[in-house]
Structure formats: structure tokens, C-alpha cells
């Protein structure tokens, strides 16, 4: 069974850091682009970052550029999202997803994790 599992969320103070992990089982991530999306209460889901399967090229939403870093470790079949300088407006459920094409559009993603909660608050 193809599955993505996110971990690493939690409660952090403004200015703090977290590293989210997205681990795949049942398939290998090497051939998939991976995206991170988030959804805050009362808001639509938005794309945060994605990384291609081929050359490792990356995309970041303007709201996280310079603070978040996406990376992949194909040997561990895992993709990471390092989040620094966190702000209260980063509070959301974060999801990872896999696609056969590199895309910022959530509708291009075929496999989704269950999400992990990130709360930024003092």
C-alpha cells in the first residue's frame, strides 16, 4: 500500500524552528516530485514548497522563501521541510504529497499524507 507519513510537527515559539519529515512506504520517492502544502483553520490549502524528482530543483511560496528549506534523502525514502524563523501565521496542518510531475498545483498530486500540526505561539 502506497503511503506517506508526516512527522515533526508541534508547538514552537515565534522565531523557532522545526523540521518536518515525509516518509514513504510501499513505493520509492526517487521518481516523484514531493510537495508540502498547508491548511490553516478557515483557509484554503496552499502550496508551501516542492522539490523535483529529476534535478532537485525547488520552489517556495513567497511567504516562506528564505525561511523554509526543502530537501530529499532518497536513500531514506524521505523528504524534509526545515522551517526557521517561524511566525504565528505559519500555524497550520502541513501535508506532504507525491506527484509524477513537478507542480505547485495540489490537483497534480496523487498521494497525500495525513498531515502534521504546526502551531507557532508564545
Summarize the structure in words.
This protein is mostly beta strands. Helix content is 0%, strand content 48%. The chain has strands at 3-7, 10-12, 18-25, 33-39, 46-51, 58-60, 68-73, 78-83, 92-99, 111-112, 116-120. Strands 2, 4, 5, 6, 9, 10 and 11 form a seven-stranded mixed β-sheet that branches. Strands 1-3-8-7 form a four-stranded antiparallel β-sheet, with no helix packed on it. The termini are far apart. The mean pLDDT is 95.
Counting DSSP E segments of at least 2 residues, the number of strands comes to: 11
> Could you tell me the radius of gyration in angstroms?
13 Å
Spans of at least 5 consecutive residues with low confidence: none
- Summarize the main sheet: 7 strands, mixed
Pattern of helices and strands: EEEEEEEEEEE
| Overall morphology | globular
Percent of residues in helical segments?
under 10%
- Enumerate how many helices there are, as a single number: 0
Strand content: over 45%
Average pLDDT level: 95
The structural class is mainly beta
How far is it from the N-terminal to the C-terminal residue, by CA? 40 Å
Helices and strands in order:
Layout: E1 3-7, E2 10-12, E3 18-25, E4 33-39, E5 46-51, E6 58-60, E7 68-73, E8 78-83, E9 92-99, E10 111-112, E11 116-120
Parallel strand pairs: 2-11
Antiparallel strand pairs: 1-3, 3-8, 4-5, 4-9, 5-6, 7-8, 9-10, 9-11
Amino acid at each position: 500500500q502506497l503511503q506517506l507519513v508526516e512527522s515533526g510537527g508541534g508547538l514552537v515559539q515565534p522565531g523557532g524552528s522545526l523540521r518536518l519529515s515525509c516518509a514513504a512506504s510501499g513505493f520509492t520517492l526517487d521518481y516523484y516530485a514531493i510537495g508540502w502544502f498547508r491548511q490553516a483553520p478557515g483557509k484554503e490549502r496552499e502550496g508551501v514548497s516542492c522539490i523535483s524528482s529529476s534535478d532537485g530543483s525547488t520552489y517556495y511560496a513567497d511567504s516562506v522563501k528564505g525561511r523554509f528549506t526543502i530537501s530529499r534523502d532518497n536513500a531514506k525514502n524521505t523528504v524534509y521541510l526545515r522551517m526557521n524563523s517561524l511566525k504565528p501565521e505559519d500555524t497550520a496542518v502541513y501535508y506532504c504529497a507525491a506527484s509524477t510531475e513537478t507542480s505547485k498545483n495540489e490537483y497534480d498530486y496523487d498521494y497525500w499524507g495525513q498531515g502534521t500540526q504546526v502551531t507557532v505561539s508564545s
